[in-house]
Amino acid sequence: xxxxxxxxxxxxxxxxxxxxxxxxxxxxxxxxxxxxxxxxxxxxxxxxxxxxxxxxxxxxxxxxxxxxxxxxxxxxxxxxxxxxxxxxxxxxxxxxxxxxxxxxxxxxxxxxxxxxxxxxxxxxxxxxxxxxxxxxxxxxxxxxxxxxxxxxxxxxxxxxxxxxxxxxxxxxxxxxxxxxxxxxxxxxxxxxxxxxxxxxxxxxxxxxxxxxxxxxxxxxxxxxxxxxxxxxxxxxxxxxxxxxxxxxxxxxxxxxxxxxxxxxxxxxxxxxxxxxxxxxxxxxxxxxxxxxxxxxxxxxxxxxxxxxxxxxxxxxxxxxxxxxxxxxxxxxxxxxxxxxxxxxxxxxxxxxxxxxxxxxxxxxxxxxxxxxxxxxxxxxxxxxxxxxxxxxxxxxxxxxxxxxxxxxxxxxxxxxxxxxxxxxxxxxxxxxxxxxxxxxxxxxxxxxxxxxxxxxxxxxxxxxxxxxxxxxxxxxxxxxxxxxxxxxxxxxxxxxxxxxxxxxxxxxxxxxxxxxxxxxxxxxxxxxxxxxxxxxxxxxxxxxxxxxxxxxxxxxxxxxxxxxxxxxxxxxxxxxxxxxxxxxxxxxxxxxxxxxxxxxxxxxxxxxxxxxxxxxxxxxxxxxxxxxxxxxxxxxxxxxxxxxxxxxxxxxxxxxxxxxxxxxxxxxxx
Amino acid sequence: xxxxxxxxxxxxxxxxxxxxxxxxxxxxxxxxxxxxxxxxxxxxxxxxxxxxxxxxxxxxxxxxxxxxxxxxxxxxxxxxxxxxxxxxxxxxxxxxxxxxxxxxxxxxxxxxxxxxxxxxxxxxxxxxxxxxxxxxxxxxxxxxxxxxxxxxxxx
Lengths: 670, 155
Fold this sequence. Notes:
The complex is a heterodimer of chains A (670) and B (155). With 670 residues, chain A is of the alpha+beta class. Chain A folds into three domains: 17-112 and 165-217 and 221-254, Aldehyde Oxidoreductase, domain 4 (2-Layer Sandwich), CATH 3.30.365; 258-412 and 528-669, Aldehyde oxidase/xanthine dehydrogenase, molybdopterin binding domain (Aldehyde Oxidoreductase, domain 4, 2-Layer Sandwich), CATH 3.30.365; 418-523, 2-Layer Sandwich (Aldehyde Oxidoreductase, domain 4), CATH 3.30.365.10. In chain A, the strands form six sheets. A six-stranded mixed beta sheet of chain A has the order 4-1-11-8-9-10, with helices on both faces. In chain A, strands 6-14-13-12-7-25 form a six-stranded mixed beta sheet. In chain A, strands 17-22-23-24 form a four-stranded mixed beta sheet, sandwiched between helices. In chain A, strand 9 (179-184), helix 4 (189-200) and strand 10 form a beta-alpha-beta unit. The radius of gyration of chain A is 25 Å and the shape is globular. Chain B folds into two domains: 2-76, Beta-grasp domain (Ubiquitin-like (UB roll)); 85-154, DNA polymerase, domain 1, CATH 1.10.150.120. Chain B has a five-stranded mixed beta sheet with strand order 2-1-5-3-4, with helices on both faces. In chain B, a hairpin with a 2-residue loop joins strand 1 and strand 2 (10-15). Chain B starts with a strand and ends with a helix.
């Protein structure tokens, strides 16, 4: 039994809102009630005049600088999305701080909001210094011209989706004796530290970041947000501890949602089902401000648009565009599900057009040997994997149930590598990983690796929360990367510890636990084709209550390399599958004609409840080891990549109408 | 106003604002942090408690409304550090991931074991309809509660 989960049942977790200090100030944010407006005046609270600062790309988003508009910490001349921070108030009493929000007076001159990709391309720039609303433009692959017998086109669209972790975002900042101490719900204490250091102009040695127990993230807790900067600023100014806890309606209006992508694609092929090429345009709605991740999102989607298939001709033009909506962020999968939905929906269209079975079509287009797509994506041959999978999930039976099928790939975000530290202390082993877990099961693989290398019993191994003092360098947990990157670092740190122990003549676990040895290891990594997982997903739909299509059953045959913990991998897969299915059925962040988010509660965002869960048939497969010492591949985002195209096809089969929008369009049901 | 609430068999008396929610009393006055706030609108169940034996969402009622009732929070389900059967099953099967939902599933699971006559997968799945888990896909949670019920019947 794990002490880490047991503490949650005893009410002894330490989530960020559980952390209190005497004389703590509660911070509340006054947000724009307009999606697009000139701010004429702000009366009350801390304003942009007090904090004339801008955000910076960090965490998952930190790639390379581009020319885009970054979000200010507080809006000054213009408010560019509903929910944008404009002013900040605080009080020692939580309820009174909320009352103070009502006392701040903001007057606006309303402007017409730009709310869709189409409107963005045809409207005056929302940032007046720019010539248009295009953030950045990409060309992926190579231009080609083909005289193919079959040429099919479609427009595909995925609505914005909120990460909606059960615990919202939150921070406690305490500036004390010249040091800024931060406790935060996060995927990476390093991205928070780096971001705050740069934004506030601090010396890195003057800020420590500690990870509180983190109640889910799904991408929403990797970046630095305005509220974090304000909380730190306020604590530095008042020398008092400051707490900010996001409410769910703030999460809906102001936490960065994911997806929001559109594709206009043409697929070229012959009558026998051999694809000759794919071309088109991919658009991503990045919202009012951009960062490295959102601005480059179209090129990341385009890079993997070929899925597992060997397609010789690829040319994609990618555009990221501004709208008057909250800035875009990563949501579980972050570009991978978009690419999978786009290519898989075109594959089904192609199969229907030439009248062959969609699985047969897919198998025909898998590479026979190692393949590099025109976008630079390198893949290992996967035919054996998918042929096996088709048998293992019992496709011949599923076909009779009108199942939808998807073939997919999962590219782990290994770039940057990861760090790990092991410390023997008072007869137990403490482990810190650069990627900060929120019990996606990092602890299980840590126990397994230390047992394998050092012979340490699993109940003596404890995974600690992220801490920039104990482990000074690290990256973060996202992009299905941790098993590969943190697993690799921990494996090598354990080997280092073993070496140290042997030099001291400590050769058994009992004596090792009596020592005070420690080791630390960091290694950068590059994506290698052996790290890419293959995913086979199937779904069956039915009509519920005479009107509503639902997904009844889901099958997953997923390649996870060498599984570090089967039960851990299982829960990651079912969790991802349900999110993927729900994205097809109802989960979305839609806005009204004034740019205000339509959902007002968690339930209204269309998330899945227990009654929405399909029956899962999960098979964990090992199709070769990754090129790491422990052989694991990624898994966290597998379900959100595999489920949407399979579920969409299942519903298409059920209704007899093309599904090219997520979530389902109600017109389809008419 | 002055209120006295009985939580996990212990009385907590305090001067509070009439508008104080029960969940804030539990967390900030009684200092019991295992009950969480997830959505403030009764959508998620992270704030669930037993109120005179019935499951209730403590973000949807005032502290003053709970006077005279017996409130049981997640801390009141275990005996010292010994988890109850539902919690043990959830913990052993590693059914939860982030852990923020622990109160919701522990409280509902405990209520199910004490009140439902026929406990099977479909029954539990339906009974859990007011508690959100964003991590697991629910199956391991439901299985854990069904298994706890089976074990209890055996004993």
